[in-house]
Design goal:
Layout: H1 3-20, E1 26-28, H2 29-37, H3 44-52, E2 61-62, H4 69-86, H5 92-113, E3 119-121
Parallel strand pairs: 1-2
Antiparallel strand pairs: 1-3
Protein backbone atom coordinates (compact mmCIF):
# COMPACT_ATOMS: atom_id res chain seq x y z
CA UNK A 1 0.00 0.00 0.00
CA UNK A 2 1.68 3.19 -1.10
CA UNK A 3 1.28 6.60 0.43
CA UNK A 4 0.21 8.06 -2.91
CA UNK A 5 -2.58 5.54 -3.44
CA UNK A 6 -3.86 6.21 0.09
CA UNK A 7 -3.74 9.97 -0.53
CA UNK A 8 -5.57 9.49 -3.81
CA UNK A 9 -8.36 7.61 -2.00
CA UNK A 10 -8.67 10.53 0.43
CA UNK A 11 -9.01 13.08 -2.39
CA UNK A 12 -11.51 10.92 -4.22
CA UNK A 13 -13.42 10.32 -1.00
CA UNK A 14 -13.60 14.06 -0.31
CA UNK A 15 -14.88 14.62 -3.85
CA UNK A 16 -17.59 11.98 -3.33
CA UNK A 17 -18.53 13.56 0.00
CA UNK A 18 -19.15 16.89 -1.72
CA UNK A 19 -21.06 15.18 -4.54
CA UNK A 20 -23.28 13.07 -2.28
CA UNK A 21 -23.73 15.65 0.49
CA UNK A 22 -23.56 19.06 -1.25
CA UNK A 23 -24.20 20.98 2.00
CA UNK A 24 -21.15 19.49 3.74
CA UNK A 25 -18.41 22.04 4.39
CA UNK A 26 -16.59 20.32 7.28
CA UNK A 27 -15.44 16.79 7.83
CA UNK A 28 -13.48 15.37 10.73
CA UNK A 29 -9.96 14.20 9.99
CA UNK A 30 -11.03 10.77 11.21
CA UNK A 31 -13.49 10.54 8.31
CA UNK A 32 -10.72 11.34 5.85
CA UNK A 33 -8.62 8.61 7.46
CA UNK A 34 -11.42 6.13 6.76
CA UNK A 35 -10.66 6.45 3.04
CA UNK A 36 -7.02 5.55 3.71
CA UNK A 37 -8.21 2.39 5.45
CA UNK A 38 -10.17 1.09 2.47
CA UNK A 39 -8.41 -1.71 0.63
CA UNK A 40 -6.10 -0.25 -2.05
CA UNK A 41 -7.95 -2.15 -4.80
CA UNK A 42 -11.31 -0.58 -3.89
CA UNK A 43 -12.90 0.68 -7.10
CA UNK A 44 -14.21 4.21 -7.60
CA UNK A 45 -17.73 2.83 -7.77
CA UNK A 46 -17.26 1.08 -4.42
CA UNK A 47 -15.80 4.24 -2.88
CA UNK A 48 -18.90 6.16 -3.97
CA UNK A 49 -21.13 3.41 -2.54
CA UNK A 50 -19.14 3.66 0.70
CA UNK A 51 -19.89 7.40 0.94
CA UNK A 52 -23.56 6.92 0.01
CA UNK A 53 -23.91 4.56 2.99
CA UNK A 54 -22.76 7.15 5.52
CA UNK A 55 -25.58 7.38 8.02
CA UNK A 56 -27.30 10.27 9.71
CA UNK A 57 -25.29 13.07 8.11
CA UNK A 58 -26.87 16.30 9.32
CA UNK A 59 -26.29 19.92 8.45
CA UNK A 60 -22.82 20.63 7.10
CA UNK A 61 -20.46 18.33 9.05
CA UNK A 62 -19.50 14.66 8.71
CA UNK A 63 -18.11 12.88 11.78
CA UNK A 64 -16.61 9.42 12.20
CA UNK A 65 -19.84 8.24 13.84
CA UNK A 66 -21.48 8.74 10.41
CA UNK A 67 -19.07 6.24 8.81
CA UNK A 68 -20.18 2.61 8.95
CA UNK A 69 -16.84 1.03 9.86
CA UNK A 70 -18.13 -2.40 8.85
CA UNK A 71 -17.88 -1.19 5.24
CA UNK A 72 -14.15 -0.59 5.67
CA UNK A 73 -13.72 -4.20 6.76
CA UNK A 74 -15.96 -5.30 3.91
CA UNK A 75 -13.54 -3.76 1.37
CA UNK A 76 -10.78 -6.02 2.76
CA UNK A 77 -13.04 -9.09 2.85
CA UNK A 78 -13.94 -8.56 -0.81
CA UNK A 79 -10.25 -8.29 -1.70
CA UNK A 80 -9.53 -11.50 0.21
CA UNK A 81 -12.28 -13.32 -1.71
CA UNK A 82 -10.78 -12.15 -5.02
CA UNK A 83 -7.31 -13.36 -4.03
CA UNK A 84 -8.53 -16.73 -2.78
CA UNK A 85 -10.60 -17.30 -5.92
CA UNK A 86 -7.62 -16.83 -8.24
CA UNK A 87 -4.70 -18.22 -6.23
CA UNK A 88 -3.81 -20.99 -3.86
CA UNK A 89 -3.76 -20.04 -0.20
CA UNK A 90 0.01 -20.64 0.00
CA UNK A 91 0.86 -18.15 -2.73
CA UNK A 92 3.00 -15.06 -2.18
CA UNK A 93 0.01 -12.85 -2.93
CA UNK A 94 -2.05 -14.54 -0.20
CA UNK A 95 0.83 -14.26 2.29
CA UNK A 96 1.26 -10.57 1.46
CA UNK A 97 -2.46 -10.03 1.90
CA UNK A 98 -2.42 -11.70 5.34
CA UNK A 99 0.43 -9.45 6.43
CA UNK A 100 -1.31 -6.35 5.05
CA UNK A 101 -4.57 -7.41 6.67
CA UNK A 102 -2.93 -7.69 10.10
CA UNK A 103 -1.53 -4.16 9.72
CA UNK A 104 -4.95 -2.98 8.56
CA UNK A 105 -6.64 -4.47 11.65
CA UNK A 106 -4.29 -2.56 13.96
CA UNK A 107 -4.85 0.67 12.03
CA UNK A 108 -8.63 0.14 12.10
CA UNK A 109 -8.54 -0.31 15.88
CA UNK A 110 -6.50 2.91 16.19
CA UNK A 111 -8.97 4.68 13.90
CA UNK A 112 -11.89 3.60 16.07
CA UNK A 113 -10.17 5.07 19.13
CA UNK A 114 -9.39 8.48 17.65
CA UNK A 115 -11.07 11.58 19.00
CA UNK A 116 -13.61 13.61 17.07
CA UNK A 117 -12.35 17.05 18.05
CA UNK A 118 -10.44 18.09 14.95
CA UNK A 119 -12.13 19.20 11.77
CA UNK A 120 -10.81 19.87 8.32
CA UNK A 121 -12.60 22.33 6.09
CA UNK A 122 -13.49 21.10 2.63
CA UNK A 123 -13.25 23.94 0.16
CA UNK A 124 -15.13 23.50 -3.07
CA UNK A 125 -13.72 25.50 -5.94
CA UNK A 126 -16.46 27.17 -7.91
CA UNK A 127 -15.22 29.47 -10.67
CA UNK A 128 -16.89 32.84 -10.77
CA UNK A 129 -19.28 33.38 -13.61
CA UNK A 130 -17.61 35.19 -16.46
CA UNK A 131 -19.02 38.63 -17.00
CA UNK A 132 -19.87 39.61 -20.53
Amino acid sequence: MTQLSALERVYIGAAFLVKVFPDVTHVSDVVLDSFRLLHPDTSLRDQERFVRKFREVHKNTVWARNVPDSLIEESWNEARKRIVSRTKSKSREAAYFRSSFNTFRMRLDEWRNKSEEKQVRIVVYQPEAESM
